[in-house]
Amino acid sequence: YFTKAWRPLFFLRRGRKPVDDFSGGLCIYTDEEPKRGARLGMEIFLPDGSSVVCRSEVAWVERLPAGGPARFDVGLKLTAIHPLDRERLSGVLQHA
To answer: Which of 15, 32, 34, 37 is deepest in the core (most CB within 10 A)?
Structure first.
């Protein structure tokens, strides 16, 4: 179980430059520490009110400093997503 993200699931990790295409990963903030390699089912809510359902795996976990937006910064690698949902998510990420 993850707590509500500080920002929507479609934001870049600190210090990284935007990319032109969706590489199949997401970054979230959470107060609960997931284990690296843990598999998660996710529903990502898009700005138009629809959602994308996919599976992911925890790629990395970094503890955030006290007073940050959450306790952990977590990288997720998408492991299963319908091709049409990937396109929809990619469109949202390109405009984020």
So the answer is: 34
**Cβ of 10: how many Cβ atoms within 10 Å?**
20
Q: Is the Cβ–Cβ distance between 44 and 52 less than 8 Å?
A: yes
Report how far residue 76's alpha carbon sits from residue 26's, in angstroms, rounded to the nearest whole number.
5
Q: How far is residue 82 from each of residues 66, 73, 74, measured CA to CA in Å?
A: 38, 26, 23
What is the C-alpha to C-alpha distance for residues 41 and 53, in angstroms, rounded to an integer? Answer: 8
Q: Is 55 exposed, middle or buried (0-12, 13-18, 19+ CB in 10 A)?
A: middle
**Digitized pLDDT (tens) for each residue of the chain, 96 residues in all:** 333 333 344 444 444 444 434 567 888 899 999 999 999 999 999 999 999 999 999 999 999 999 999 999 999 998 999 989 988 988 887 776
- Side-chain-side CA neighbours of 56 within 13 Å: the count stands at 25
